[in-house]
């Protein structure tokens, strides 16, 4: 009958873009009746890596093996990246007479399930992809409080160092908030706190130190400085007032034309009197000029 498989040559701590391997050995039963199959898991969930696994199998023998059974040695290779973090591999012995299909997991009873599983893989990689932000993102005034936040990818997790550009001797105390390194500045001062702030993230992978940095600029206004949106608001209001004045003039002209067209005698008389007075005034001005 088939036997519980054993694992060897297992690698569980590798650098990104390296290969991990594992070798599974077991008696699978009569010739052509059994085989070894592989499954992959990540954080306890089954994942399909069939297109990424390179599998090789050979038949081996040991002293005392039954000549009617086959001992198979099956090796798997996987090129890992950071997305493979916590991947584990399991090999199962399946046999058409005993275990025709492999169970979903190898955690219930390995001796019954005829399986063996590796520990989760730790993938290490240099620090990269740094981002520096601040809260709040709105305009800053003297006396305000602002929190600078820095995050970078890397395994082992990066360590962070903060400095103010041009004032590197200034101590900036930082704390970790989840995966973010944060620095909080209170009672902002335009002269002392305006400028560029540098966040450096670093880690060590296989005895080599890696580092990356990001910069964020702080612009701090005096408390009496008007808000940047004031000019835009005034312009909008002025435009509306001009439009309303033009519309009012057009309405007056339209009313005069309607009065003439409708033969409104009172209104027409007022219009005519205005025209006569305007003509007399013009004549008087011309006469005095001569």
Automatic annotation (TrEMBL):
Chief localisation class: membrane
PROSITE patterns recorded: IG_LIKE
An MF annotation (GO) of this entry: cell adhesion molecule binding
Entries under SUPFAM superfamilies matching the protein: Immunoglobulin
UniProt keyword list: Disulfide bond, Glycoprotein, Immunoglobulin domain, Membrane
Keyword Transcription in annotation: no
Protein name per Swiss-Prot or TrEMBL: Ig-like domain-containing protein
Organism: Biomphalaria glabrata (Bloodfluke planorb)
């Amino acid at each position: 009958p088939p036997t519980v498989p054993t694992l060897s040559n297992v690698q569980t701590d590798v650098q990104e873009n390296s290969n991990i391997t594992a070798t599974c050995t077991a008696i699978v039963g009569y010739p052509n009746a059994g085989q070894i199959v592989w499954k992959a898991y990540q954080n306890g969930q089954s994942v399909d890596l069939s297109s990424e696994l390179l599998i090789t199998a050979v038949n081996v023998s040991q002293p005392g093996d039954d000549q009617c059974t086959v001992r198979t040695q099956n090796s798997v290779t996987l090129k890992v990246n950071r997305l493979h973090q916590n991947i584990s591999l399991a090999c199962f012995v399946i046999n058409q007479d005993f275990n025709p299909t492999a169970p979903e997991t190898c955690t219930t009873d390995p001796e019954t399930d005829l399986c063996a599983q590796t520990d989760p893989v730790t993938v290490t990689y240099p620090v990269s992809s740094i981002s520096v932000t601040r809260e709040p993102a709105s305009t800053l005034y003297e006396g305000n409080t602002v929190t600078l936040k820095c995050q970078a990818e890397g395994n082992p997790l990066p360590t962070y160092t903060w400095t103010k550009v041009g004032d590197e001797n200034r101590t900036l105390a930082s704390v970790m908030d989840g995966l973010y390194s944060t620095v909080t500045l209170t009672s902002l001062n335009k002269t002392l706190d305006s400028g560029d702030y540098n966040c450096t993230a670093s880690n060590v992978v296989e005895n080599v130190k890696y580092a990356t940095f990001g910069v964020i600029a702080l612009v701090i206004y005096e408390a009496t400085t008007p808000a940047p949106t004031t000019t835009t608001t005034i312009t909008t209001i002025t435009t509306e007032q001009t439009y309303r004045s033009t519309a009012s003039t057009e309405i007056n002209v339209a009313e005069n034309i309607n009065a003439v067209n409708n033969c409104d005698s009172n209104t027409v008389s007022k219009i005519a009197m205005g025209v006569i007075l305007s003509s007399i005034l013009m004549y008087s001005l011309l006469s005095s000029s001569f």
